[in-house]
Each structure stands twice: as C-alpha cells, then as structure tokens.
C-alpha cells in the first residue's frame, strides 16, 4: 500500500509541475507583447480587439461585421505591417466568406517579423487584380505569416523537451 501512495504523490507532483510550467510559459510569453498602432483609421465595419508585437513576432485579432447596406461576403481584408523605420514588411489578404448580416466574424493574423511597430488594415473589393496580388503576397510573405496552432505545437514541444 505504501508504494501506491508514493506513486500517487509522484503523479500529483508531475501534474502540478506541468500546470505550473504551462502557467509560467503563458505569462512569460504574453508579458513580452507590446501594443502596435494603426497608421490609419480602421473601417467602421471592423473592430480590432488586439494588435501586439514582440521583437520577433506579433498578432492582430479582430472582428468584421457585414450589414445589408454593405455586404462583405467575397471581399478581402488587407493587412500591412510596418517596422520601426516605417518600411512595409509584409502584406496579408484574408478572404471574407460566409458572414451573416449583423453577426461579427472573427479573424486573426499572426506573424513572425522583427521590430514591427504599426499596421494598416482595410476592406477591399474582390477583383481579378486583388486575387493575383493575394496569391503573389502569399508567395512572398508566406513564411512571415503563421498559423496560431503551429506556435502552440512549438511551445508544447519545448516544454516536453525541457521535462526530459
């Protein structure tokens, strides 16, 4: 019976250490983010919830709302990020699809670029030229803009590697 109690204590210590590590990682990573500013006015149908960057990466989260007067289905969100020297670093196009009237739709832009200080965001109409520009932008800046899930996997991998 003594071995079972000892085994339970070790399991509880491992679970406690895991929770503590995850908490410290979350707090440590989020403490390094600083707000970045918009270089121009945000469109009225868009609300930016979070726009932050560190020295090496960043994130912009927001919502876009389609109305009967201005249907956004099929249009694009164009996001441009600028470094401290006010030089365009990258451009990202997000296609707006499947939105209902007066119902906010969330969007997220995650990037890995150094010293980002500002951004512009706009809603543009769909056209052949915009589609070509979006494809070219994806080719040029595909390695700068990342998926959030990729970052989560890397963090979990680092934690597991440290625990070995």
Structure in words:
By secondary structure, the protein is an alpha+beta fold. 37% of the residues lie in helices and 34% in strands. It folds into 2 domains: 2-31; 34-147, Immunoglobulin-like (Sandwich), CATH 2.60.40. Strand 5 (76-83) and strand 6 form a beta hairpin.
Shape: elongated
Number of E-state strands:
9
As residue ranges, the low-confidence spans are none
Quickly count the domains: 2
If strands are numbered along the chain, what order do they take across the biggest sheet? 1-3-4-7-9
CATH third-level topology of the largest domain: Immunoglobulin-like
CATH level 1 class label of the largest domain: Mainly Beta
> Helix count, per DSSP?
3
Gyration radius, rounded: 21 Å
- The CATH level-2 architecture of the largest domain is identified as Sandwich
Order of helices and strands: HEEEEEEEEHEH
Main pleated-sheet profile = 5 strands, antiparallel
Helical content (DSSP H or I, runs of 4+): 25-40%
Quick summary of this structure?
The protein has 164 residues and is an alpha+beta fold.
Structural topology:
Layout: H1 2-31, E1 34-35, E2 37-38, E3 46-53, E4 58-65, E5 76-83, E6 88-95, E7 104-111, E8 116-124, H2 128-141, E9 145-146, H3 148-163
Keywords for this structure?
single chain, 164 residues, alpha+beta, Immunoglobulin-like, 2 domains, five-stranded antiparallel beta sheet, four-stranded mixed beta sheet, 3 helices, 34% strand, elongated
């Amino acid at each position: 019976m003594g071995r079972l109690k000892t085994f339970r204590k070790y399991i509880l210590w491992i679970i406690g250490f895991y929770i503590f590590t995850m908490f410290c990682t979350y707090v440590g990573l989020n403490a390094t983010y600083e707000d970045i500013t918009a270089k121009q006015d945000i469109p009225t149908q868009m609300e930016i919830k979070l726009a932050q960057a560190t020295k090496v990466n960043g994130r912009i989260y927001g919502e876009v709302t389609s109305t009967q007067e201005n249907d956004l289905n099929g249009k694009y969100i164009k996001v441009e990020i600028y470094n401290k020297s006010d030089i365009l670093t990258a451009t990202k196009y997000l296609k707006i699809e499947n939105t209902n009237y007066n119902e906010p739709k969330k969007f997220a832009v995650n990037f890995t670029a150094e010293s980002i200080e500002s951004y512009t965001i706009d809603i543009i109409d769909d056209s052949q030229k915009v589609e070509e520009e979006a494809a070219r932008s994806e080719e040029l800046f595909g390695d700068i803009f990342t998926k959030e899930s990729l970052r989560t996997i890397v963090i979990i991998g680092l934690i597991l590697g440290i625990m070995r």
